[in-house]
């Protein structure tokens, strides 16, 4: 049986291991509130400003990047946490709300994991993840990995890279990464299993690389969780991410003129006839649209204003439905009886709205020819950059050519320091390659690619 006392554990791994205390800078903040601040001020957060949400290398500055998406998920998650901590405090947290500072810690923890959930995503969004996987599949058998190690790379995923980043790679002055609280680390785990383990808990992916197995076992032990078991607040973070990308990505698709407000309304009505939630949303925003037609707006302004009303109404319905679903199922989350692979929105009355919006995004956004073309360019940039970096990584430093030394120097000093603390075997070399590419912004990756390609006349396969 899980307890909120352990799930909101404010201990840090450095404290658990008996490490030296950090500077005394709490200044009336709880430790969990400090987690958000540590994440916010970290370099990987800033890099998300130059990483794709839907549209690669986007020039329109009003279209969302991975950073604006993450801030919006964080905002939704914090608001969700406020509702749980204030409106449903007794139903969810019982009688320990004062001792656990629930009203401060729960919204803060959710804001932190919402902001951090995509930190490990490589350039060019999900196409970037696929490009990394394809590179390792293509070179399988040439890299010196054994069968057990292969899976971390041929099934590479940004969620596992996020956990690695915050626990190990974002070096401050020791081996603890950002040294977040163990409560926040477990709430961040969307997929609570180590690569290669037998039980994924009913979820579709692994969420922790084998290199971080010892770390995740430590945080599970200190929060009372087991492999395959999600922190209850991880369900909230997942729901807020789904809400953001289903609804807000639709707004960007209309902003890009790939579809119109009326296309979206027609899509929802045709996909979800008779659905009460969809009907409420469509009816209200159509009324707003008719009203604003009388204000003399241009067609572009009318599209934008109407989509803003759609965003507000749709998110309100989805958050309400997801909150109710969480409250109804929290006891099952705590006693371990929740169905494997459970999803808040999929079990809520608003599931049709979310799924239909996602289908709209796929049809009009992700499959648009311009997006596919840019994704293909991004795919080529990533795979060719990996081709260029690998010979430098695989060589011992003393035997590198001048070109390889220069290429190796393009990798973050943090990542090289972590690599130098390993055995430098094949697994560590492959991780350094993933770390290097995942940590780059899109413009920096293109710069590195073009520069290295111009300096090396013979780019051969490994």
Q: Which radius of gyration do the C-alpha atoms yield?
A: 23 Å
Give the SSE order as H and E letters: HHHHHHHHHHHHHHHHHHHHHH
- Helix proportion: 55-70%
What is the β-strand count?
Answer: 0
- What is the overall pLDDT average? 92
Helix/strand-derived category reads mainly alpha
Fill in the keyword field for this structure.
single chain, 462 residues, mainly alpha
Task: Describe this protein's structure.
This protein is mainly alpha-helical and about 450 residues long. It is built from 22 helices and no strands. Helix 13 (about 230-255) packs antiparallel against helix 16 (about 300-335) and helix 18 packs across helix 19 (about 400-410). The termini are far apart.
Short description:
The chain is mostly helical. It has 22 helices and no strands.
Helix and strand topology:
Layout: H1 4-7, H2 13-16, H3 31-40, H4 43-47, H5 66-87, H6 89-93, H7 102-116, H8 125-138, H9 147-154, H10 158-169, H11 182-187, H12 213-223, H13 232-255, H14 261-271, H15 276-293, H16 299-335, H17 351-366, H18 369-394, H19 402-408, H20 413-420, H21 426-438, H22 442-455
Helix pairs in contact: 3-7, 5-7, 5-13, 7-13, 8-18, 13-16, 13-17, 14-17, 15-16, 18-19, 18-21, 18-22
